[in-house]
Amino acid sequence: MNLPIEVGCFSLDSERRFFNDRRQLRYYAEPALNPSFDLKDGFKDRYVKRDESVKEKLDHILRWITSNKAKVTTKDSSKPTLDVDFVMWRGHLTKLLTTPYENREGWMFAVTRFRGTIYISEVETEAARRDRDNRTERHSEMMYWGYKFEQYMCADKIESSPDPSGVVNTNEAYCTVVRTRLATHKLLFSGEVDCRVREPKDPPSCYVELKTSAEICTPKQRSNFHRFKLLKWWAQSFMPGVPQVVAGFRDHDGIVVKVETFQISKMSQLIKGENNCWKPTVCMNFCNDFLTFVKDVVSEDDPSVVYLFSWEPRRDVGFTIHRDSQYGFLPEWYINEITR
Ligand code: 0WD
Ligand code: CA
């Protein structure tokens, strides 16, 4: 695997407006030795939640591409073309990497080829839609806890401190845009980054991923944490080259009782004590094989033709082909901007 290179970044503000800059990047603030962050605080009265029924698909990444054409196109022929094989969200890669070990949730990806580049955009499965519609109040609050933890751990400016009295607004995001290679596949993807360290260090090695997780009290819980949680954390941060995850362990009442740092490069060592545990190479091989399969299947170069790939636990990957359907996801403005 080639090293991931950051080729750009963008920010989404409190109203989900796009900016081709780092304005939403926050700074990591080392917590006190024994913190007791209350993650419940503000859920009822200081929470602005992004509208999850709005499906943004690849729109923000496409916007970034059109604003930064020179960085990602080659002009060796008469028409400029993107010099990558695949464009997608980092979250899509995470799902592909963890597929060999996933036994609960399937996935569905819409895939289309346009001017040689293959675009991949997730489609919400029926089951995921049901889970989202039937979310309990408890579950909604627990989803808030992760964002509240970010607020305790991040400062808006390099010289400032976190402000836990503020509003948590999940429209806001800072995203890195990364180029890398997985075997022969050239990838361009974007992922949301929680914060960076204050010390002068280049991206992506300055970045920090923040997570919350249930406090570990028994050997069984520790084993599950290693086998399932660390796999997800590793897969998410490995591809963009984010070197560390800072985890807040919380009790049932949403109080953080311990903060611990995990190095991505040490994760696969950390879990070697577990039997039949996950292996990075199994993840990478599956992802590589899937992308090879997609290159082969997605042969028509036409954004009105969408190939839907789907997978369910204990099944093989399947696909269907759709012409001029509801699944098309490359917007007119993008096609025009790239074609002209
Ligand atoms: O399927 C996806 N991953 C999609 C992501 C589909 C459509 C849009 N997005 C975009 C948004 O623009 C967002 O800013 O998600 C961006 C983040 O993308 P990602 O980095 O590829 O997503 P992922 O790695 O799954 O999640 C990173 C963080 C999450 O943090 P935790 O610590 O829980 O992993 O992004 C947030 C969440 O805070 N997040 C999202 N934010 C907006 N829309 C979404 C989403 N669909 N999913 C996760
Ligand atoms: Ca996070």
Task: Give an overview of the whole structure.
The protein is of the alpha+beta class. The chain is built from nine helices and 19 strands. The strands form five sheets. A nine-stranded mixed sheet has the order 2-1-12-13-7-9-8-18-19. Helix 3 packs across helix 6, helix 3 packs across helix 8 and helix 6 packs antiparallel against helix 7 (264-270). Ligand 0WD binds next to helix 3, strand 12 and strand 13. This is Decapping nuclease. Residues 4-334 form the RAI1-like domain. Its cofactor is Mg(2+). Decapping enzyme for NAD-capped RNAs: specifically hydrolyzes the nicotinamide adenine dinucleotide (NAD) cap from a subset of RNAs by removing the entire NAD moiety from the 5'-end of an NAD-capped RNA.
Topology readout:
Blueprint: E1 5-12, E2 18-19, E3 27-28, E4 47-48, H1 59-67, H2 69-72, E5 73-74, E6 81-82, E7 86-89, H3 90-98, E8 107-114, E9 117-122, H4 126-133, H5 137-153, E10 154-155, E11 168-169, E12 173-182, E13 185-192, E14 195-196, E15 207-214, H6 219-238, E16 244-250, E17 256-263, H7 264-270, H8 280-297, E18 305-311, E19 318-323, H9 332-339
Parallel strand pairs: 4-11, 7-9, 7-13, 15-16
Antiparallel strand pairs: 1-2, 1-12, 3-10, 5-6, 8-9, 8-18, 12-13, 14-15, 16-17, 18-19
The site of ligand 0WD has 16 residues, from α3, β12 and β13.
Domain RAI1-like: 4-334
Cofactor: Mg(2+)
Pfam family, one: RAI1
